[in-house]
Design goal:
Helices cover 52% and strands 16% of the residues. The chain has helices at residues 13-24, 31-45, 52-58, 89-98, 102-118, 128-132, 146-160, 172-194, 216-233, and strands at residues 3-6, 27-30, 64-69, 72-77, 80-81, 121-125, 138-143, 207-210. A 5-stranded parallel beta sheet has the order 2-6-1-7-8, sandwiched between helices. The radius of gyration is 18 Å and the shape is globular. The longest helix is centred in the last third of the chain and has 23 residues, at 172-194. It is an alpha/beta fold.
C-alpha cells in the first residue's frame, strides 16, 4: 500500500514518514529533496528563481535519480550525490520559488509516479495525496502551528551545530532567531499554498494530524494504526 504524507515545512513529515516506512518495509521518498536538488542546479547555473523561461530552458539538462543506502535516501544530480548540500536556506528559498513552475512539477511528478509503481512507498511532499498518488491507500495531512515548527527548525539547526538542546531555555537571542525562522516559514507557507500549480492543500480524503502537541512516536503509532485498518479493508 502506498502512503501519501503532505503538509507544510516543519510539520515533522520527513522524520515521521521515514519511521513509518521503516516499520512497514516501504521505501521512503522525500520529494522535497528532489525539488531541492533541482533548485541547487539552478543556483549553480545562476538562474533567477522567478524567471520561468530561464528555468524551463535548463530543465532538459537536469537528471535527478534517487538511490538508497541502508534505507536512507540519496539524491543524485547529474551523477553527483548532492544529499548533503540540500538543507541550506538558499536552497530552501530557490526550491520554494522554482517548484511553482509547471514544467518543473511535471518533470518531478512523473519521476515520483514511476517510483511508486515499482515499489510500495511512503512519500512525503505537498501534492502527493492530491496530484502524485491520488489513489494512495492512506493519505495523511500533517500540520503544526508556525511557532512550533520554527522552534523545531531552530532546535534541529542547534543540534546540527553540536549544541546540547536537552534542557533548552531560549535566551532573547534564541527568541529573535526563532521569530525570524517563523516569519520565513509563514512566507513559504503562503507561497506554497497560493501558487497556481499544485498548491499545498489537503486532499479531500486525507486525515489531518496536528503534531503541535504530539511526540514523533505518538504520530507514527497513529499512522501505523490507520495503515493497519486500511490494509485490512483494502
Ligand atoms: O519539504 P521541503 O521543505 O524539503 O520542500 C522544499 C520545497 O519544495 C518547498 O518550498 C515546497 C516544494 N515542494 C513541492 O512543491 N512539492 C513537493 N511535493 C515537495 C516539495
Amino acid at each position: 500500500m502506498n502512503i501519501a504524507i503532505d503538509g507544510p515545512a516543519g510539520a515533522g513529515k520527513s522524520t515521521i514518514a521515514k519511521e513509518v516506512a521503516r516499520k512497514l518495509g516501504n521505501i521512503y521518498v522525500d520529494t522535497g529533496a528532489m525539488y531541492r536538488a533541482l533548485a541547487l542546479f539552478l543556483i549553480r547555473k545562476g538562474v533567477d528563481g522567478e524567471d520561468g523561461e530561464a528555468i524551463e530552458k535548463h530543465l532538459d539538462e537536469v537528471d535527478i535519480t534517487l538511490s538508497y543506502e541502508g534505507g536512507s535516501q540519496h539524491v543524485i544530480l547529474n551523477g553527483e550525490d548532492v544529499t548533503g548540500c540540500l538543507r541550506t536556506p538558499e536552497v530552501s528559498d530557490m526550491a520554494s520559488r522554482s517548484s511553482a513552475n509547471r514544467r518543473v512539477r511535471e518533470k518531478l511528478v512523473e519521476l515520483q509516479q514511476k517510483l511508486a509503481k515499482t515499489t510500495p512507498v511512503v512519500m512525503d511532499g505537498r501534492d502527493i495525496g492530491t496530484v502524485v498518488l491520488p489513489d494512495a491507500g492512506l493519505k495523511i495531512y500533517l500540520t503544526a502551528s508556525p511557532h512550533v515548527r520554527a522552534v523545531r527548525r531552530y532546535m534541529e539547526m542547534a543540534e546540527r551545530a553540536g549544541t546540547d538542546t536537552g534542557s533548552f531555555a531560549p535566551s532573547p537571542e534564541d527568541e529573535a532567531q526563532i521569530a525570524l525562522i517563523e516569519s520565513e516559514i509563514r512566507e513559504r507557507d503562503y507561497r506554497d499554498t497560493h501558487r497556481e500549480n499544485s498548491p499545498l492543500r489537503k486532499a479531500e480524503d486525507a486525515v489531518v494530524v496536528d503534531t503541535s502537541l504530539l511526540s514523533i512516536g505518538e504520530v507514527v503509532a497513529e499512522i501505523l494504526k490507520m495503515a493497519g485498518e486500511r490494509d485490512g479493508r483494502l
